[in-house]
Amino acid sequence: MTVLHLWLRHEVRSTERRTPIVPSDARRLVESGVTLTVEESPQRIFPVEEYEAAGCRIAPAGSWVSAPVDAVILGLKELPDEPAELTHRHIYFGHAYKQQPGAGDLLWRFAAGRGRLLDLEYLVDDNGRRLAAFGFWAGYLGAALAVLQHRGKLVAPLTPTSKEELDALLQPAAGEAEFTALVTGALGRSGRGARLALLTAGVEATPWDLAETRDLDREALLAHDVMVNAVLATTPVPPFLREQDLDDPARRLRTLCDVTVDVGSPLNVLPIYDRTTEWTDPVRRLRKEPPLDLIAIDNLPSLLPRESSTDFSSALLPQLMEFETGGPWGRCVDRFRQACRELGIAEGKLRNV
Ligand SMILES: NC(=O)c1ccc[n+]([C@@H]2O[C@H](COP(=O)([O-])OP(=O)(O)OC[C@H]3O[C@@H](n4cnc5c(N)ncnc54)[C@H](O)[C@@H]3O)[C@@H](O)[C@H]2O)c1
């Protein structure tokens, strides 16, 4: 049996402090016989010394390009533009199967080098459910930002923080005005995170999931002060909010955080805005009188890098322990092949191990 060689790479995006494997889980991989090389990375939330102490080999940032060809390169976000030919197997979020900008170029780079993308978004169990995802902390952050904005306490630009710091800000001050909140997609990962953050802020949210939105009661929706949307839409449903709802004189809704951020998608349940908001400028006013503020940030978990990495790593660890061609990883390979075929890349060009 060949020994698995994992290579944890440095993330090229300078604001990305998260990592898919934290030092305590790195130790467990090493103890199970995996060879684990970890690249130095100035911004990673865990110092490289912690990986070294866990028995990992240390390598310079970006050195994966010359890693042994059988090494499996592990990361989270985009690869650098070079090299043109990708020779390794890469585990990360490639965002390459839904005709995203640059998706075709990326798949051709894999074909040119006979490498392979094992996309974390498609690492699923037998029922198609994601095995490792950042949803919980996305929801927690989204709801926390909504609370802070609603209470007039949100400070921009946003910067990565810790749960302790965030929770301290969420504690209601004496005499703080009470408000009501609605979480849609309440039973999912993000929805559960959102409800917990709201509880920390002293608010028990109204939880709506599929059953409660089947026969949508927009009047009831608009009667909440704060809404956090965390649905994962897979089939089109009537929008939760339309332009005309924002002008409803009975609207109590003042603060909306869209964790889902399906802007531009036919599945979007909130087609009332057309671009995301950013860490530098997290809030956009959609209506002046009465006000309605929107938060729609698509990289929320990066604001809690330690907690979100730890959570993600604990879900990924058992999958890495059973890294093999079948099961969930086999499904990742099948999805990669399908995407390549759709692009017209000949089967013979793809690595067949
Ligand atoms: N903004 C960010 O930074 C960020 C980060 C991670 C995930 N996300 C997004 O958050 C969304 C939720 O992710 P998740 O991991 O929580 O998914 P999930 O599958 O764990 O949960 C989604 C929930 O939505 C519910 N749902 C689906 N359609 C619904 C409808 N019409 N009405 C009510 N409920 C409905 C489902 O029943 C489920 O409970 C996804 O779109 C994901 O891409 C955003």
Automatic annotation (TrEMBL):
It comes from the Bacteria. The keyword Oxidoreductase applies. One of its GO terms (molecular function) is saccharopine dehydrogenase (NAD+, L-lysine-forming) activity. One of its GO terms (cellular component) is cytoplasm. This is Saccharopine dehydrogenase. NAD(+) binds at residues 129, 188-189, 209, 213, 259, 297-300. Belongs to the AlaDH/PNT family.
